[in-house]
Amino acid sequence: MTAKAIPAKARAVIIGGGVSGCSVAYHLAKLGWTDIVLLERKQLTSGTTWHAAGLIGQLRGSQNMTRLAKYSADLYVKLEAETEVGTGMRQVGSITVALTEERKHEIYRQASLARAFDVDVREISPNEVKQMYPHLNVSDVVGAVHLPLDGQCDPANIAMALAKGARQRGATIIENVKVTKVHTRNGRVSGVSWAQGEDQGTIETDIVVNCAGM
Ligand SMILES: Cc1cc2nc3c(=O)[nH]c(=O)nc-3n(C[C@H](O)[C@H](O)[C@H](O)COP(=O)(O)OP(=O)(O)OC[C@H]3O[C@@H](n4cnc5c(N)ncnc54)[C@H](O)[C@@H]3O)c2cc1C
Questions:
Q1: Domain shared by 122 and 171, yes or no
Q2: Ligand 1: does its nearest atom lie under 6 Å from the Cβ of 55?
Q3: Mutational pocket test of ligand 1: of 48, 71, 90, 178, the residue with most ligand atoms within 8 Å of the beta carbon
Q4: What is the pLDDT of residues 154-208, one digit of tens each?
Q5: 3-class SS at 173?
Q6: Burial 108-137 (b: 16+ CB within 10 A, else e)
Q7: Ligand 1 neighbourhood includes 141 CB (under 6 angstroms)
Q8: How many angstroms separate the CA atoms of 182 and 173, rounded?
Q9: Which domain covers residue 144, as residue numbers?
Q10: ipTM score here?
Q11: Are 145 and 161 within one domain?
């Protein structure tokens, strides 16, 4: 895409085309924010997202993380049908084992929290762990939880599916454009500068979402 296609103004600019940026673009577009621009300095998913193992686990330590993890798992199951991008999502389930009483209490607490948000989760005995996964030595396992709807996906394709879903709803996603500066006026964001090879420019915006990763 050439520099000419980069708009001079947008309702929001998202920096970074990893899974976070693509997800922000997807969800803003779904809320009807079509006048948004995502700028990725290289290719979509070329950052950390490319390296992820793609494990989708819903056992989390806080309410908000549990809700987010469940929402994501549910979304990833539907995303392939919606966007026709193969996400590789397979709900093979997960087992988390505890080797100490303290850890057992912790994962049981997380399981209770997850259950409160309708996550399918069950406390299981070491014997049940052995039945489900015979390769594991369970001699020092004191407790475990099983989440049958946890799974694994292709993280890059999840991001590509989110990007496609965002584009389908009108979002603009441009690769090989680096954000070089965030501008402020009277203490508020007023725009970004970008560079694409020798070309440079600015986008006027009130909202910048920093999804540039580490
Ligand atoms: C080995 C490994 C295994 C992992 N396994 C899992 C797992 O199983 N499950 C799980 O949930 N998580 C896993 N993670 C974590 C997961 O990969 C990250 O949390 C996630 O990919 C972060 O996504 P992101 O979009 O925030 O960042 P990134 O994917 O890094 O995206 C940031 C993007 O911003 C772009 N960018 C940066 N600066 C600019 C700029 N100035 N202008 C324009 N673009 C810019 C970059 O090029 C990049 O594409 C794993 C991570 C690693 C390293």
A1: no
A2: yes
A3: 48
A4: 999 999 999 999 999 999 999 999 999 999 999 999 999 999 999 999 999 999 9
A5: strand
A6: eebbebbeebebebeebebeebbeeeeeee
A7: no
A8: 18
A9: 56-153
A10: 0.97
A11: no
